[in-house]
Amino acid sequence: MATPRLFRPAARLLSSRLSAPRRPAFPQSACAPSILRSRGYATEGGVKEVTVRDALNEALAEELETNPKTFILGEEVAQYNGAYKVTRGLLDRFGPKRVIDTPITEAGFCGLAVGAALAGLHPICEFMTFNFAMQAIDQIINSAAKTHYMSGGIQPCNVTFRGPNGFAAGVAAQHSQDYSAWYGSIPGLKVVSPWSSEDAKGLLKAAIRDPNPVVVLENELLYGQAFPMSEAAQKDDFVLPIGKAKIERPGKDLTIVSLSRCVGLSLNAAAELKEKYGVEAEVINLRSVKPLDVETIVQSLKKTGRIMCVESGFPMFGVSSEILALAMEYGFDYLTAPAVRVTGAEVPTPYAVGLEQMSFPQVDTILGQATKLLRL
Domain 35-229 sits in which CATH superfamily? Predict the structure, then answer.
């Protein structure tokens, strides 16, 4: 039986406490490999460790401070400080008119957010998980995404939809689906998926400032992960452009394109490829699912001649499928081997630990596919 909606936060917290000691398969370090120590930044001075949770919190606080039209609403965002503590301290700082707890009715509070955006405000609508955003899909797509086009460009809809998306340990099929491809297929929506703390802060601020709907797909397992943050990213004017990918690791032998938590796994696999085989894999962090930075992908493919996409979503009609299709359309002449994708399994996420581990890409999965592609 599904967990009653009334007890979501407590049930999820209890589940994570009970399951933590027996889950060695998904260490946080898998998301932040040692290669981060040598990663380049806008400025090298003043780098400090910041968790993704704190980076998101900082972005929200800065936008609430500078833009009086901005407010946050969602389940548990105020008095409870958010189910994942992303909104910690914001109620005390900005008050109950700008940090608003809602009933457990996604269609209702999402509709309120879209209506407020159409009236000229800049709401930030938090879903406890994007799996529950399915309750509000009509509001997101028909009411928000299509309005600008249907109004002939007259009516903007500045609303940000954010929350955890995709794989999370021990929550089974109804709390772990990846919706990157779902939202990425909708005209009128921009979709971003941060990996690092810099990604999280810069992309969320860009989403809040965008005049039309943006979906920010975070990952539950990354919230507590600390990443180095540059001095430039610590400033309140730091914003990342939507639609621009980042090369996290340069290389010449293989292009690996990934997003969200799978970026860390891909970097770990790239490090092993270098150590074991001397292969230099280039790892691209998409950051933005839509618009997609096709230029960066094709330029990398032109250099390496081989491309692999890594994501945690289902294999059919996914983000990887789209990227490989675009690689064929715009970079076919550069390919020296068939394009490859590494995805989640074609199965609803199991609850059992062993089956769960087999349902998502792991470092050894990526490494195995890469060695086949490179014929090592």
Answer: Thiamin diphosphate (ThDP)-binding fold, Pyr/PP domains (3.40.50.970)
